[in-house]
């Protein structure tokens, strides 16, 4: 399925708008990731474990959004937007939501 942050797919005109679709993923931060990220804060560098967790959550949210679009019979999702938030006690959970508009293409 095609996805785009733009409001259309350049190569193919939109023939029908099917509606807003969304996907969410909530992933807990692991205590060892927190420990190693704290060390990275002190010595510098990238927190690869957090980056991996963020990437995984974004992929899960995208997959859920695409599945919602497929249930509507869409060919693409346009206007895709990602939102990130920490939730839970002490911000121990990461939430990623992906939203967009499911469309049929010509």
What report would you give on this structure?
- Helices cover 35% and strands 40% of the residues.
- The protein starts with a strand and ends with a strand.
- Strand 3 and strand 4 form a beta hairpin.
- The chain has one domain: Hypothetical protein apc22750. Chain B (Translation Initiation Factor IF3), CATH 3.30.110.
- The protein has 106 residues and is of the alpha+beta class.
- The protein is built from two helices and four strands.
- The mean pLDDT is 85.
- It has a four-stranded mixed beta sheet.
- It is elongated and about 45 Å long.
Quote the beta fraction.
35-45%
Name of the CATH architecture: 2-Layer Sandwich
Which word captures the global form? elongated
Provide the number of structural domains: 1
Derived structural class: alpha+beta
Strand numbers in spatial order across the main sheet: 1-3-4-2
List keywords for this structure.
Translation Initiation Factor IF3, alpha+beta, 40% strand, 2 helices, 106 residues, four-stranded mixed beta sheet
What's this, in brief?
The protein is α+β, with helices and mostly antiparallel strands. Helix content is 35%, strand content 40%.
């Amino acid at each position: 399925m095609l996805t785009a942050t733009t409001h259309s797919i350049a190569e193919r005109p939109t023939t029908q708008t099917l509606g807003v679709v969304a996907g969410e993923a909530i992933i807990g931060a692991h205590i060892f990731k927190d420990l190693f990220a704290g060390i990275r804060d002190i010595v510098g560098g990238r927190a690869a474990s957090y980056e991996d967790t963020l990437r995984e959550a974004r992929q899960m949210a995208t997959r859920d959004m695409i599945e919602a679009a497929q249930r509507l019979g869409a060919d693409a999702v346009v206007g895709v937007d990602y939102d990130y938030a920490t939730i839970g006690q002490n911000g121990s959970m990461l939430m990623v939501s992906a939203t967009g508009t499911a469309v049929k293409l010509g």
